[in-house]
Specification:
237 residues; alpha/beta; 7-stranded parallel sheet
Length: 237
């Protein structure tokens, strides 16, 4: 597993971005997150050792633009070069997430066709409004590997109409002292929808403010993922 962030910076885009940890961390460091810039790692995907072999070993999963959005408009002038590098590194598997799925068809390379075998696209939704809007687009797109990411989940949502051809649904809460609460009943409801349609489900993290059986708990950020794992409700088909 490796991270590849060819650019940094992002713009808040919808309700799920309200307490974005990237913006929060940048603010503490005096960095303007709204300034989208190429990083020194832009070409790291194809960098080679003196021996001529790639520095990033074959067979790895590459998490692409996990601190920004691969489809952000500010990066339109750079994305084509990224697709070329991803095509060259067909020996790697890429995953990127986006809240800007409506831009997808304007951002793909000419040879995309029905999708690259080594690219998984995750559409991020946080509430029913964004689920209905983004996933109605997502379900029609030519993508071979589709995930749905409900993180941060800020209300109960129904994904039942959008699960065809989806590989995995990930659910998680918000991590911030002011975070909106995550109700465990919402998590279980999405799990039930996934099991009914034989779609893999992962409960990735609790929220800082977590409701279970009507009682609200405040959890440490360091415990959010481990507590979700302890629930033992992941469903992998």
């Amino acid at each position: 597993m490796t991270m590849w962030n060819p650019w940094r910076g992002c713009h808040k885009y919808s309700e799920g971005c309200k307490y974005c940890y990237i913006h929060k961390g940048d603010y503490k460091r005096g960095i303007d997150t709204n300034n989208i810039v190429k990083t020194d790692n832009f070409y790291s995907l194809i960098e080679k050792k003196k021996s001529g072999t790639y520095k990033i070993k074959s067979g790895q999963t590459v998490y692409l633009c996990f601190s920004t959005d691969f489809l952000i408009k500010d990066a339109d002038g750079w994305r084509g070069e990224c697709w070329s590098m991803m095509r060259e590194r067909s020996d790697l598997n890429f995953i990127f997430l986006t809240k800007r799925i409506e831009r997808f068809m304007d951002c793909i390379p000419d040879d995309w066709s029905d999708g690259y075998d080594n690219v998984t696209v995750g559409c991020t939704v946080e509430n029913q409004d964004r689920a209905d809007y983004r996933l109605s687009i997502f379900k029609e797109l030519p993508i071979k590997h589709k995930n749905i990411i409900c993180q941060p989940l800020i209300e109960r949502i129904d994904l039942s109409a959008y699960l065809d051809n989806v590989k995995l649904v990930v659910v998680g809460g918000e991590s911030d002292k002011n975070a909106r609460p995550l109700d465990y009943e919402w998590v279980l409801a999405i799990r039930k929808q996934c099991v009914a349609q034989n779609v893999s489900f992962e409960f990735r993290q609790c929220g800082t403010h977590f409701i279970k059986d009507g009682k609200t708990y405040t959890l440490n950020v360091r415990d959010l993922c481990s507590q979700a794992k302890k629930a033992g409700i992941n469903f992998l088909r």
